[in-house]
Amino acid sequence: MLEQYKKEHSQSVNQYIIVQLDGTVVESDDVIFPKIVGKNISTIHPFFESIHDALKENNKRHIFSCIHLTNTNNQTIITDVIIKTFDGKKLPLIVILDLTVHYNNYQTTAQVRNESVINSQILELKNEYLQEKEAFKNTFIANFSHELRDPLTGILTFSDILKKTNLSDEQLNYLKVIDSSSNYLKQLIEDILDISKIEAGKLELVIKPFNIRELLEDIKNVFTIKAQQKDLELITNFNDNLPEIIGGDALRLRQVLSNLLENAIKFTEVGTITFNVSLNQIRAQKASIHFQIIDTGIGIPKEKTEDIFTSFTQLNNAQVYKGAGLGLAIAKHLVSLTHSKISVDSTVGEGSTFSTNINFVLDHSYKNIPKTKEKTSRPKSDKKYSILLVEDSEITQLSILKILASKGNYFLDIVTKGEDVIPRIENSEFDLVLMDIKLPNSFGDEITKLIRKMPEREHKKVPVIALTARVMKDDLKRYKKAGINDVIKKPFNEDALMSKIEEYLK
Predict the structure, then answer these.
(1) Rounded CA separation 377/375 (Å)
(2) Domains in the chain, ordered, with CATH?
(3) pLDDT, tens digit (0-9, with 9 covering 90-100), for 414-427
(4) What is the pTM assigned to this prediction?
């Protein structure tokens, strides 16, 4: 039965042909090309004109792969052609193998594989492009921010200096406008940098113990004044059962709450701002604290509540309220780092409620942390301190010079080029070095490494404080590794500068 099935259903795709040495067909099974006996093999296809030399060789086997032939139905088939010659009087054998299906399947597989490889390469190129684009954007923002911070430092510094002079009421009002504008510009720069860090995945929380009651009172004092400036009332309710010392990122918590309160005051023209903080629970050495800010402002349409957390988005198109639309986007991300979220309940024309629950660390050792030191106005000693300023910005030079000159306890020497720092330190004794990080043709952290390698102990141990706008986590690690003692973030004012200087000139 099997033999019968094979005869009925098998379809041979091989044709066997015996030819004379000149190519004349003697026998053929006519499977692919019928009725060719007596004809020359070259009449089947021009390819066979090239095999005459092979037919005359004795006892050889030639294989020709992937030969395209046209059959009697005028269809192109893909074949392998085998030519076998023998010794003596045996005539050559030609075998034509129809491998069309095989080659087509192979081609399809190869095409799929090639397309997969191509798509993979395209994806890789896209990723490289996006990485280059991201790197360019971050570098641009960092450089742009750096260039803005020097003139902004000058504005903040000389505004403080002017306040201490004899000014008329009108001039003081002008200074208030300058302060307001410069502080807004400073906050805008900080927000843009934070958004850049968020998009690069480099914004992280720094968990340290802090006094939450002091933090809340500081925030209350700041925003009470801001609310009064718009004839609004700030109502605060801080529960008595809040723990005093908790572990968290105090700086980022202040940023979240400040952004929410800023928005509440901004979008409220009449009424109150209510700031509630309460303890949810304490469990497993964690304190869950509830923060709630309620305003009586313009409200948010239900369908727009998600849009307010998108970067550079503001719902009002009339530009009545200034702002870049970054505060809530940053706040949302910072809260998400604590595995929580900000909830919004709002009614148009009645007001909005923003709330979140954040977990903080509780540790018995936190009770032993030192209390915040009171700020001192100047070093206790009457000694004249010698400070080396490494800075190429004339604005920053003049700002620091004016601040230190007003204190009367300092000599200031200024170097603008990195290559001049070591010779200056070798020839003079300094109590402290203020080091700009980005200098022409050099970097402050590299110069600090050279200072730390100096042979004289009094030189290599001199405190070095960096002046820089580059304060990302990787930057701070690099500065510390270079031997930099501390960082003053640009733009800075008199208080920020003097508190750091006095800390290292005990």
Answers:
(1) 7
(2) 11-98 (3.30.450.20), 105-199 (1.10.287.130), 208-368 (3.30.565.10), 385-504 (3.40.50.2300)
(3) 999 999 999 999 88
(4) 0.58
